[in-house]
Amino acid sequence: MHVVDMSAANRKGLSLFALIMIGLGSIFGSGWLFGAGQAAQVAGPAALVAWVIGAVFIGMIAMTYAEVGAAYPLPGAMARFGSISHGPVLGFVTGWAVWIATASLIPIEAIAGTQYMSSWSFGWARGLVADGSLTGTGMVTALLLTVALWLACYWSVELLARANNLLTLVKFAIPVLAVGALIASGFHTDNFTAHGGFAPNGWSAVLTAVTASGVVFAFNGFQAVVNLGGNAKNPGRAIPLALVGALSLGLVIYLALQIAFLGAVPPERLAEAGGWNGINFASPFADLAKLLMLHWVVTMLQFGAFISPNGANIGNVASAAYLAQNLADTGFFPKKIAEVHPRYGVARPAMWLNLGFSVLLLLTVGHSWEALASVVSAAMVVSYLMGPIAVGVFRQTKPDLPRPFRLPAASVLCPVTFAFAACALYWSKWPNTGKVAVLTLISVPIAAVVLRRRGGTSLRRQFAPAWWMVAFLLWLSLLSALGSAEFGGHGVIPGGLDITLVAVSAVGFYFWAVRAGVQAHRAGLPGPDPVLGAPAAGPVPGQRRPEPVGTVAS
């Protein structure tokens, strides 16, 4: 699970078990350390419903990527589908979004480890967090953890990759033991109905918890299966099975963790806090175990707070470097970014780029896991948008494409999945939606500058297949700003109507996006297909054939 020469990796081939371990190892990063506590604070006992909704949503997204990922078993595949389906501009915009979302995981895992260090009994450790945010010392500690993990991958990737299966099994065992210990310590069933009932903050809070409380963040590890599944012995079979296996096991453990957390909080502490809104632990499970005098559980969780985030970060560093390499291959990042070290087989320039971005996030918005997770989760949802759209485009433009896995009822499931993704982005609340839209759309002027310098086909023609994405992000930001106060908006659009508008308009954007992809293929904009070789269709008669800017490397 590392950034190496993929020709060598393909010759070896990952087993199905190894691919499931990769997915499970990425899913069990810092999400389990904080997700249950944060979701309980936002949604109360109804956080259980948020985990099911999140798993269903991610499962739908993952199955669309299973079809295109098995058809195009390419390293860093999630950054390449936009180029293959719509051409260079949308390829860069979506590749940028995937890269931002994945590279952001590197610092957030270091923040997670730092926040759990604050539960140590040492005086200096208690000074790492104050009022739920990292102090100056905490920021320095998180920065040191980020650099240390980065250096480990920089010099010793092979050793870390071999240790991944063992790390995953350890990460799997720690939450299972924590669940058993918390339930055995005393399980308070009244916690699920007292203090406002099962959903004390309403069902809108449940929907917000899906994105803003780290539920989507927790399941995001499925991307590692898609990005690295091209190295499996039989990608067509391995990718969908690994996705189902990793997500199913992940859901079972996350539900168990949530149930244990909800039932183990002492009723008197819940009453003192005025309900679930007041339960705000810097290190949720470790602080709860301290309350219950489970000292061995505290020690185990403190150990797990190092193993889980850092183990997951092996995959994050690998995936982020692949994605940066792909953006360099398409011509929008400097070619030097894609260079692989001849001795170590590591894409060191790409790793340097990701380290710089990680440090920038730490110094700007990384004052706590919760703050960064809400923005990163919204960015992840943007990165998911291409899955259902790529299925819709390829079904029309590439009927001869080998599909080891075919999504059933794709004509119905793809637009529904896209609408679900739009709703999840809306649930992340204003102003997070606006922040992520701006962060994604920064790529548009960069693409214009690069393409203008390269010359060739007019910018108007090359941008034509990408305008739906620009319009979608701006429209969703507007709805979010004007929407109900429950989702952070100004209340101009009443509750209920806002989500209806998001879902219905998203279906319209889906069909616009698919039509734009079909037209891009007729114009020859995507260039040679990595699997089929030639473009799906030649240029429109009388139209100049585009330059190979942004063509996905085979």
Task: Itemize the secondary structure elements and their pairings.
Layout: H1 6-12, H2 16-27, H3 31-43, H4 47-71, H5 81-86, H6 88-103, H7 105-117, H8 123-126, E1 129-130, E2 133-134, H9 136-162, H10 164-184, H11 203-212, H12 215-219, H13 222-228, H14 235-264, H15 267-272, H16 284-291, H17 295-329, H18 348-364, H19 369-384, H20 386-397, H21 410-427, H22 432-441, H23 443-454, H24 459-463, H25 467-482, H26 497-522
Antiparallel strand pairs: 1-2
Description:
Helix content is 68%, strand content 1%. The protein is mostly helical and 554 residues long. It has a two-stranded antiparallel sheet. Helix 7 runs antiparallel to helix 17, helix 9 crosses helix 17 and helix 9 runs antiparallel to helix 18. The radius of gyration is 23 Å and the shape is globular.
What is the share of helical residues? 55-70%
Overall 3D form: globular
Q: Report the mean per-residue pLDDT as an integer.
A: 81
Distance between the termini: 21 Å
Give the strand tally: 2
How do the strands of the widest beta sheet line up side by side?
A: 1-2
Q: Note the run of SSEs as H and E.
A: HHHHHHHHEEHHHHHHHHHHHHHHHHHH
| Number of continuous helical runs | 26
Sequence stretches where pLDDT stays below 50 over 5 or more residues: 1-12, 536-554
- Radius of gyration based on Cα positions: 23 Å
Structural class: mainly alpha
Biggest beta-sheet profile: 2 strands, antiparallel
Strand content: under 5%
